[in-house]
Amino acid sequence: MTQRLDQFAAAGDLFQPMLQQEELLKSAGLEYSLIELVKLRASQLNGCALCIHMHTHDARKHGESEDRMHLLPAWRESPLYSPRERAALAWTEALTKVAETGAPDADYAPVAEQFTPREQVALTLLIGAINSWNRIAIGFRTPHPAPREATAA
């Protein structure tokens, strides 16, 4: 894959509002582990290699288990996720695939039960943000770092 454009070199200043939003969302009441699970799941659904790479490494660095990251695509079948995480993951999938799902009440109800109104807004903004980052990285074909150990396979 060849990168189409280095978006930060071309227009780094245009990313400032998105980067500021990222900082605001970190202090909006959502747990760091939940933030990374949401970012990772949306990135998996969108097929964004750069973001999958980034968020698995960030989550691991902050203590996330390998099992929870590996089982994330099958979170509905695994007991490793809390009810709050399950609500966030269902909402992530519903909003990432909003053209297909229409963000159904069945996915929103657990969010309303598990999250305060402010946290619901933060979660929804987080999901929107990671979907934007995915589209930017995929659109410009931004490559993920390729560590030497990965090439051994």
Description:
- By secondary structure, this protein is mainly alpha-helical.
- Helix content is 68%, strand content 0%.
- It has 10 helices and no strands.
- α2 packs antiparallel against α9, α3 packs across α9 and α6 runs antiparallel to α8.
- The longest helix is centred in the C-terminal third of the chain and has 23 residues.
- The radius of gyration is 16 Å and the shape is globular.
- The mean pLDDT is 95.
Cα(first) to Cα(last) distance is 18 Å
* Class from secondary-structure proportions: mainly alpha
Task: Report the uncertain regions.
Answer: none
Shape: globular
Quick overview of this protein structure:
The protein is 68% helix and 0% strand.
Q: What is the topological layout?
A:
Blueprint: H1 7-11, H2 16-26, H3 32-46, H4 49-61, H5 66-70, H6 83-96, H7 98-101, H8 105-114, H9 117-139, H10 148-151
Helix pairs in contact: 2-9, 3-4, 3-6, 3-9, 6-8, 6-9
Question: Which descriptors would you attach to this protein?
Answer:
single chain, 153 residues, mainly alpha
